């Protein structure tokens, strides 16, 4: 629990869980204020559990959600009224604590010195200097329009939204090429996760602690880090609005926020995750439970699901299944288990060249393949999963399947601040040129990673190839020149078919095979022990020590030889006029 005291009466915190409430009560807090809307992000705990915990410990609960980046006069007035009614001490929380601090600052501006407010919030770890103009107006007049955005905005040459794999990789590639480049990253999280490792956590190979580092340890010292969430985009003004209302300007914007795991799209799923035999390697906290279930499930039915595309790493749901089956086979339990793979797709894998090797393992483990089966509801208490099934005639029906273990791949979508923004295509993803990774309508905006609409596999390996392309093209745009680097759609999916062997699927746009190694060393369409060594030993090291440092081993961008004629060269500002 990360509590920041502003006054003896009022403290703020990043997102808390139900388990934190007992500690809050022991520290003397009497009331909890939640300033974060429900379902704002994929990793957000259930508010119902937090509220119930507060009531159990005798703390009053107050839900006053504030939309990130849009703190209005109504929000501040309601907060001020609530604070006047409460008996403290009070603990308020949101995603990072920034919204709570901003609400407090704005509500106090009419009777506290503005500089004292800013020093207080800064001492607590929240830099609200961008709110100075609004605070001064409030101090001068109680009738000020506090919802008016400030006209001042800090400005950077390159502003990056997202400090995950994509954001860090492109930063490393940019700094390698121009170490003195003015770069800022907007990222609210305090931890950085190596998500490709969660499959091996669920398979009993890695400890989950091997897959996480603090964001501060990962963030390059040469960049400015805004530990806040982006709320909206003003591309016509070359600005991004943060959750506290602060605006940041840019010459070039790179958008790499990742995607959202939509657990709530399946009724009953969130309520039973981590219990009743329901798990998912798509979450850091649940991957160890997968391994626990594999070792405790000795008979009955095990279901593994795959959601409709697009999803992170289309092979991940199968990886969990093959590693589980391998362990069950080794322990002698597989003969007493019925294993089913329920996928929304009509094929086992999207690139046909890898299917024969996978089918050998499907047969070896006795797995039943259920194509065009989409999970639509889970009843954890009764251990039943409901699927929408499309038959060969196109007819749709619903079927219920009992289970003893259920591994879920959740539906996935772009974050709302992307899908509801001017940057999105009709499906809600960032609209990008699939080769240059430049926005299709805004020439001063680039994107990479899972939130883009490029038709490649959404994997860390794809990011590793995209980052140098984006870095080259961003530096071109800063010079007023057209993009010259191209991305071929490369993605890699190391399919862990058994402990010690992997089918190393590497492919690009259109399913074209793009192997990194000669066939005499690694035959990508066949299971390989060398590929397992690559996955277990080399790729984590490459991720932390080369990908983020701009060392582009086997990832150098393809540079076009074409030199644009003078009339083809455009500045970043010109691009906006041409969209």
Automatic annotation (TrEMBL):
<keyword id="KW-0874">Quinone</keyword>
<keyword id="KW-0560">Oxidoreductase</keyword>
<dbReference type="GO" id="GO:0048038">
    <property type="term" value="F:quinone binding"/>
</dbReference>
<dbReference type="Pfam" id="PF04273">
    <property type="entry name" value="BLH_phosphatase"/>
</dbReference>
<dbReference type="InterPro" id="IPR029021">
    <property type="entry name" value="Prot-tyrosine_phosphatase-like"/>
</dbReference>
<keyword id="KW-0809">Transit peptide</keyword>
<dbReference type="InterPro" id="IPR015904">
    <property type="entry name" value="Sulphide_quinone_reductase"/>
</dbReference>
<dbReference type="GO" id="GO:0070221">
    <property type="term" value="P:sulfide oxidation, using sulfide:quinone oxidoreductase"/>
</dbReference>
<dbReference type="InterPro" id="IPR036188">
    <property type="entry name" value="FAD/NAD-bd_sf"/>
</dbReference>
<protein>
    <submittedName>
        <fullName>Sulfide:quinone oxidoreductase</fullName>
    </submittedName>
</protein>
<dbReference type="GO" id="GO:0070224">
    <property type="term" value="F:sulfide:quinone oxidoreductase activity"/>
</dbReference>
<dbReference type="GO" id="GO:0016787">
    <property type="term" value="F:hydrolase activity"/>
</dbReference>
<keyword id="KW-0285">Flavoprotein</keyword>
<keyword id="KW-0274">FAD</keyword>
<dbReference type="GO" id="GO:0071949">
    <property type="term" value="F:FAD binding"/>
</dbReference>
<dbReference type="InterPro" id="IPR005939">
    <property type="entry name" value="BLH_phosphatase-like"/>
</dbReference>
<feature type="domain" description="Beta-lactamase hydrolase-like protein phosphatase-like">
    <location>
        <begin position="2"/>
        <end position="109"/>
    </location>
</feature>
């Amino acid at each position: 629990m990360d509590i920041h005291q502003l006054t003896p009466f009022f403290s703020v915190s990043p997102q808390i869980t139900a388990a934190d409430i007992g500690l809050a009560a022991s520290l003397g807090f009497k009331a909890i204020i939640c300033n974060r809307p429900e379902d704002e992000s994929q990793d957000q705990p259930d508010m119902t559990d937090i509220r119930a915990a507060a009531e159990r410990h005798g703390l009053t609960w107050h839900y006053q959600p504030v939309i990130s980046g849009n703190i209005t006069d109504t929000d501040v007035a309601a907060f001020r009224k609530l604070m006047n009614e409460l008996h403290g001490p009070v603990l308020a929380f949101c995603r990072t604590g920034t919204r709570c601090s901003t609400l407090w600052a704005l509500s106090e501006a009419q009777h506290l010195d503005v500089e004292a407010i800013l020093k207080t919030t800064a001492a607590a770890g929240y830099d609200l200097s961008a709110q100075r103009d609004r605070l001064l107006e409030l101090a001068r007049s109680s009738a000020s329009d506090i919802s008016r955005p400030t006209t001042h905005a800090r400005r950077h040459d390159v502003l990056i939204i997202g400090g995950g794999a994509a954001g860090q990789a492109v930063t490393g590639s940019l700094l390698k090429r121009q170490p003195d480049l003015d770069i800022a990253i907007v990222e609210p999280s305090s931890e950085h996760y190596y998500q490709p490792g969660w499959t091996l956590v669920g398979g009993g190979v890695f400890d989950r602690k091997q897959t996480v580092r603090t964001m501060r340890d990962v963030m390059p010292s040469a960049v400015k880090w805004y530990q806040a969430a982006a709320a909206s985009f003003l591309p016509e003004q070359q600005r991004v609005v943060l959750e506290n209302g602060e605006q940041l300007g840019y010459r070039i914007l790179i958008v790499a926020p990742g995607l959202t795991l939509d657990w709530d799209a399946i009724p009953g799923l969130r309520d039973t995750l981590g219990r009743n035999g329901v798990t998912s390697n798509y979450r850091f906290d649940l991957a160890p439970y997968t391994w626990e279930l594999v070792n405790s499930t000795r008979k009955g039915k095990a279901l593994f699901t795959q959601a409709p595309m697009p999803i992170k790493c289309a092979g991940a749901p199968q990886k969990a299944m093959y590693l589980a089956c391998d362990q069950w086979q080794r322990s002698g339990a597989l003969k007493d288990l019925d294993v089913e793979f329920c996928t929304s797709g009509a094929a086992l894998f999207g690139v046909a060249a890898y299917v024969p090797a996978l089918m050998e393992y499907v047969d070896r483990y006795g797995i039943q393949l259920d194509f065009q089966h989409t999970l639509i509801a889970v009843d954890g208490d009764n251990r039943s999963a409901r699927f929408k099934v499309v038959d060969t005639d196109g007819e749709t029906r619903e079927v219920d399947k009992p289970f003893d273990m259920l591994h879920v791949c959740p539906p996935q979508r772009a974050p709302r601040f992307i899908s509801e923004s001017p940057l999105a295509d009709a499906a809600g993803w960032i609209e990008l040129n699939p080769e240059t990774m430049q926005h299709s309508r805004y020439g001063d905006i680039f994107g990479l990673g899972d939130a883009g609409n490029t038709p490649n596999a959404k994997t860390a390996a794809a990011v590793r190839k995209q980052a140098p392309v984006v870095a080259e093209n961003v530096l071109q745009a800063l010079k007023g020149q057209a993009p010259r680097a191209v991305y071929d759609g490369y993605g890699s999916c190391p399919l862990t078919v058994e402990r010690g062997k992997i089918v190393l699927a590497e492919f690009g746009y259109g399913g074209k095979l793009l192997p990194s190694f000669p066939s005499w060393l690694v035959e990508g369409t066949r299971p390989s022990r060398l590929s397992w060594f690559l996955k277990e030993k080399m790729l984590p090291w490459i991720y932390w020590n080369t990908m983020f440092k701009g060392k582009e081993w086997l990832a150098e961008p393809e540079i076009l030889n074409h030199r644009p004629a003078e009339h083809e060269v455009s500045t970043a500002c010109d691009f906006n006029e041409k969209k």
